[in-house]
Amino acid sequence: MHIAMLSPIAWRTPPRHYGPWESVASLLTEGLVSRGHDVTLFATADSQTSGTLHAVCPQGYEEDRSLIPKVWECLHISELFENADGYDIIHNHFDYLPLTYTGLTTTPVVTTIHGFSSPGILPVYKKYSGKVFYVSISDADRSPDLDYIKTIHHGIDIQQFDFQSQQDDTLLFFGRIHKDKGARQAIEIARACNKKLILAGIIQDQAYYDQYVAPHIDNNKVIYAGSVGPAERNRLLGKAVALLHPIQFDEPFGLSVIESMACGTPVIAFDRGSMPELIKNGKSGFLVNNVDEAIATVARIKETDRATCRRHVERHFTVDRMINEYIQVYEMILDSERL
């Protein structure tokens, strides 16, 4: 099977730090190649893959601000579709813009919808619903206006996450510093519990950081670790007593939740979006409805078993399981094309 994998170009594939869509595209590409499939990864020129790299954009436009995003997105996407007939299947991880090219080829296109940035983008998805194949990343993130071939939860390479049976008494927030992710609420929870809090992640909203996060950073009880790479991420996730995930939006998935549990660290998350699909309540973490419930739940975190958290990921959220499900989708599509 010859597959064209279309990754976004905001960041390198795989990302150095942040870049969840690029991360999933990379994991899927490497897994498919390891199983003998011929995969061409369309990504930035500095990307790394054991497949064939096809690139026109020199590096991620979030990493080189001299690059005009729309210009390089057009060049990147058109490069794939001008070569589309050379592939058995195209797998799009680049949101809705590539859908507008799909009428130019008979090669089937699978689009993993990594979330809806706004209801305003739905008209594009609706136009191509039934013409391309949509995969949702959680049941919670499905639109009733679209047809889907399957829900496939993300998987992670569990070898990259070391299980830690011993932890310190620190709480962790790991995610974008943005109101959606709830860094402000994480600080409130930690302060009420009189526990040290480490925050890690890119600052996506500088005004939010300046107003709600920066005034509390004292490098003692509240520490901002910045945007951390894989090694530091592994250490922080493994040593925390719990990951705080007080999201303020209906999150489509949440890779940090899975990564935390893989290290043995339970998650206290607001019960929104995909969280009930990821966390086994009372076993691998707790689902709560507000800050007060989260504060009360911190005292109960010792009720969870760290080995149980790890097993939950091993059973449900491995990259092998994700690859198996995508291969099934590819085969379903190619079989239907042959009829």
Brief summary:
With 339 residues, the protein is α/β, with parallel strands linked by helices.
Specify the overall morphology: globular
Unreliable residue stretches: none
CATH topology (level 3) name of the largest domain: Rossmann fold
| Mean pLDDT score | 96
- Largest sheet, if any? 7 strands, parallel
The count of β-strands is 13
The top-level CATH class of the largest domain is: Alpha Beta
Would you write up a description of this structure?
- This protein starts with a strand and ends with a helix.
- The longest helix has 20 residues, at 319-338.
- Helix 5 links the parallel strand 9 and strand 10.
- The strands form two sheets. The protein has a seven-stranded parallel sheet. A six-stranded parallel sheet has the order 10-9-8-11-12-13, with helices on both faces.
- The protein has two domains: 2-155 and 319-338, Glycogen Phosphorylase B (Rossmann fold, 3-Layer(aba) Sandwich); 158-316, Rossmann fold, CATH 3.40.50.2000.
- It is globular and about 60 Å long.
- It has helices at 20-34, 69-81, 122-128, 183-193, 206-213, 230-239, 255-262, 275-278, 291-298, 306-316, 319-338, and strands at 2-6, 38-42, 52-54, 89-92, 109-113, 133-136, 150-151, 171-174, 197-200, 222-226, 242-245, 267-270, 285-288.
- It has 339 residues and is of the alpha/beta class.
